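Obj.: predict assembly geometry.
Materials: sequence records (below).
Method: joint structure prediction, all chains together.
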Amino acid sequence: MHTLGEIAEFINAKLVGDASVKINGIASLQRSNSNQLSYIVNGKHKRDLISSQAGVVILDKSLLDDCPTNALIVDDVYLSFAKISHYFKKQITHQAGIHPSAKINNAKISTTCVIGENVIIGHDCVIGPNTIIEDNVTIGDNAYLYPNVTILQGCLLGKNVVISSGAVIGSEGFGNARDNQGRWHTIAHLGNVVIGDNVTIGANTAIDRGTLEDTEIHSGVRIDNLIHIAHNVIIGQDTAIAANTGIAGSTTLGKHCMIGGMVGIVGHLNICDDVVVNAKSTVDKDIKTPGVYTGIMPLMSHKQWQNVGLWLVKLDKITKYLNIKLKNLKGK
Amino acid sequence: MHTLGEIAEFINAKLVGDASVKINGIASLQRSNSNQLSYIVNGKHKRDLISSQAGVVILDKSLLDDCPTNALIVDDVYLSFAKISHYFKKQITHQAGIHPSAKINNAKISTTCVIGENVIIGHDCVIGPNTIIEDNVTIGDNAYLYPNVTILQGCLLGKNVVISSGAVIGSEGFGNARDNQGRWHTIAHLGNVVIGDNVTIGANTAIDRGTLEDTEIHSGVRIDNLIHIAHNVIIGQDTAIAANTGIAGSTTLGKHCMIGGMVGIVGHLNICDDVVVNAKSTVDKDIKTPGVYTGIMPLMSHKQWQNVGLWLVKLDKITKYLNIKLKNLKGK
Amino acid sequence: MHTLGEIAEFINAKLVGDASVKINGIASLQRSNSNQLSYIVNGKHKRDLISSQAGVVILDKSLLDDCPTNALIVDDVYLSFAKISHYFKKQITHQAGIHPSAKINNAKISTTCVIGENVIIGHDCVIGPNTIIEDNVTIGDNAYLYPNVTILQGCLLGKNVVISSGAVIGSEGFGNARDNQGRWHTIAHLGNVVIGDNVTIGANTAIDRGTLEDTEIHSGVRIDNLIHIAHNVIIGQDTAIAANTGIAGSTTLGKHCMIGGMVGIVGHLNICDDVVVNAKSTVDKDIKTPGVYTGIMPLMSHKQWQNVGLWLVKLDKITKYLNIKLKNLKGK
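Observations (raw structure tokens):
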């Protein structure tokens, strides 16, 4: 719990409101309550500001008149959010062995595991050696965690989940605010990773926690090795994703999709249900129609590729040139 | 050991044959013996069925007449195979420290390692701290395993092998059968990873075990960091593979190949000896001729790429259009 | 310390000089001193040879006349360097717990960590469970190392550094010399990884140590998950790199760059300051002008991609053909 007075001082903001109000968390404008802080980076979300139930909002002075609650006026809203986010990150116990508060049912836990405070592990789970489960993690019945897995604080795993060696669940999202000198300021990610039932996660895959809300892996999903799933991604039920693929922040995948290996999906996209993306393709726009999609350069002999490449980078010029030529010829 | 009666009940199959026959493993039609189960997914392999020595075969009723042994008739052969595969997965000990049955020669083992049942470690090996070696693994002389390595059950490493931190050897293959409601059913992978002599494996690389037979990394191979090698891949002698590359299931690479970084090689391919694939290329068909291969989009200014991209996706239409225009002009 | 006599015998070289000279390390021609060994692979660097202060140089006999110091004449210089490099690799302690020589200030170290000989850890650091810190590592104040991190010998981390789970710092570079039978010989990498202040490293990222000099990550850099950074790469201040990206050996990135996810950057390149590379692009040449760069194949329906691909691999032939056609038509 921090007072608005403390917060204002920490982020060097001008407080318009009650300095004694206590804040215990951060949420979006729409989801925050009177004990939570929110922020608005620009006027696009003005409507959400006007109806927000937040205890306080960090904002630019131009939006003060639309703020229905306490306000923290700053020069750079996103940077101030980055700085204050660390106030609300929970500290971790990191004791050896199994914390006395953990509820282990008849799970089989290796002696070299670390099980944190308030962890709940369901019936018939197997937790391999050297696997780390941080505070406040909940794992459903019949989960199998291989050796050397890392489940970071607060994550929630369903029933029959299988996590392979080297996988990291709940790593920090890659969110950073840049100040006016070009320096990055890390955002503390306060959401969790929530994994449904019957999900498998491959070796050395990393799934980042959400910024304020959770990263979600729905039931029945299959995730292969060495995959990166960024903060606030949502993967729909029974979707399968092959190895080396990366999905950037806040993208939502539908149900029953099949994503090939080493596919890159950029952030903030919506991919509908029943989409197949072939291996190595790049998805850089929403997909609204089920079907099979591809986008790769065909393999050639290196020499042929060099010849093709020479013209490829001039394709727009070739098209224009030929069109002019054709017109001229036609005009003859 | 499971009887055919038990197996039939578990996968809900109609048994044609002797319910008391005992089965202790699964193998392909061609390799299975009278104590093993096999399966045939479609008529293409009918010849293998006719000559199979298997104790029982899971099949569709249309193939019953060609089955020379006990038969388990099911609606979905592959799904039934997925379900029964878990019957034959060996359970793991996961005790702390070094299991009394392990044969450690004069290897240097860190106190925080876990060494499973029946593990054999050769002379002069170094096993770094927190490295996990599951049951029935064999490691040849003079191997060096860095800290935080995971070697899963049954894998076989040759002499002078070097495995870097974070590498996972013997993770489950990404094989799943889909039921008629679109749900995935994991296949238990019963093969191992077999690594020859003088092989190096980079940091955070993952090598999956084979489905029924083994994934093979032949002697002298060099594998860099963050590489995915799927189930049943075979990498020929002295081939080198650079970082971030992924090789999908059942692909075979020849000898003395050099695969660049972040190359994607799709499944079920054959790449001959002495092939060089440049970084970032996609290999989506067999390569039968030694040589240098490339397939990437050249880097451009973003603006130029946008201009090129506009025409690129219409390249077939441009070609057709121009051909018509030329014909028309010629006809004038 | 090894004498030139011992070294000559080990690599089967003809020594021209004093067999009793003692050598304690390897460095480049320009940086080596009289106790160090150097090597020259071809005549391009003859000027560096002539002015070298090295105690001995491995070289081809054709360069003997230009050698100002002791010489080791061999048939294959690079291969001989690979073999002798292992002489100078430091052995690791790998004891359990915290080595008595380690200087831990008021850092919070989990009981399952391994902290090697002569490690120095600054004030207020947190070292998560099962994290391994090998000998001679130095970590600045206020660092946060998540669970299951591996920091290998001799690496240097600045203040306020955050290293996520599964990350490996100081893995061996992927440098190998090939003998005349096509077999690879590993080069022992003797440089370290040097990380500045305020750097964050993502989950399951691997950063290789340098061959002779160090791999450098400058202050303020942000590195996401599952990234490969090869030996001797230099990343300039405040540059941010998104997940799944790979940077090959000896490439230098400038300051304030933003590299998208799954970008591949080939080796020995120079990328200037203030460069943005969009996700999935390949950088295969120097970038000398700040700006935004892209090089990917646009996503299409699979059918459309097949149609485009047919013509794409013939783009050079299409261009040539159309030009001839146009000339012929013009000539009519």
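Conclusions so far: Chain A has three domains: 2-88, 103-293, 302-331.
To do: check interface contacts against the pulldown list.
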